[in-house]
Each structure stands twice: as structure tokens, then as C-alpha cells.
Amino acid sequence: MHETAVQVPSAREPIDAMQRARWELRAMAGRLRTMEATLVDERRRSEKLRRERDRLRDGRSLLQRWFPAWSRTKSPAPAVEGAPACLYVVIGLEFEPLREFVQTLRQRVRIEPGHRPVVLTDCSSFALLRDFGVLLEYLPDRETWERHRPDRSWEDVLSERLSRLYRDHGTVRTVFVNRAHPPTLSELLR
Description:
By secondary structure, this protein is an alpha/beta fold. It contains seven helices and four strands, in the order H-H-H-E-H-E-E-H-H-E-H. 49% of the residues lie in helices and 12% in strands. The termini are far apart.
């Protein structure tokens, strides 16, 4: 296939309708190719996330691959009933960093089973993390809340929600997670 180069005329040169139509058609074709490539990348990413979700549902974590003996035993309960609860307030974190943080909490529970994590998040995709063995509580983000309920202050709702979580779960410790630097496993174990 032979393509002829179409020069984009400067603002001073007159453009005939046919030349302009060719240029716009090529520009649109370029945008479509870019969108197709993005779609392919998103489909691959989506499939990868589905496989990871299914792998985690089956209880085969990365540690179990490294230590095959662990895969023969059933995973310990993620939280011991009656253990002291620790509330992690994770506001403003996108899904991927939130998923990594929840996985880190899950590792902490495996190391210290007497720890009962409760995560309060404003990430609307939190439901995808329910199988990680960490209790997740949802509070709409400030923008969503103010759009739907301008009559009530988001700060008041956050305060009420924290009070209720303290009471309902018997929280003994609260950690406000810095969204720019979520804690690592070693930091959580301190």
C-alpha cells in the first residue's frame, strides 16, 4: 500500500476541501489506532487482574509459591475474633495502592494472628478486595458526598463513622495512612 504524504498547510496558505478532508481522515485514523492500542492494553491488564483475583480466591498467595509446604495447609483465619481491632483510615488512595496496602495487612495478620484490621476507605472499588480477609468499611469520597448530600458536612460524616467504628469493633488503635507513602509490612509490625 502506497501512502502519499499530506502536508499540513500553514494558516496563511489556502486549503482546498479535498486536501483538508484527507488530512482530517489521517488524523482520525491515527487517533483510532491509538485508541485500539489502549483498548488492547486495558484488556490485557483486566485479564491479568482477573487471574490474580482468581489466584487469591484459591488461596495461593505468592508466599505459598515460595514455600510449597504452606499450600498444603489451610490459610489461617484472617482475623481472630475478640482480638484487638486496629482501624486503618485510608482516604484518597486509588485502587491499586489500596490493594497493595490490603495485601500488606493480610501478610501482617499471617505473622501476628492476634491482630484484627479494619480498613475505612473512600475507594469506590473496595468491594473487589473483600476476599483478602480484611474487614473493609466504605465512606464515599468528599466530592461524591458533597455532590449527593450538600446538606451534611463530609467531615461530620467522617467523624460519626469513625466513632461508630471505634464502638462497633472495640478499636484499640487507629492509623491514618499517608496516601503518598502507605506503610510497609516492616513498618506495620513495629
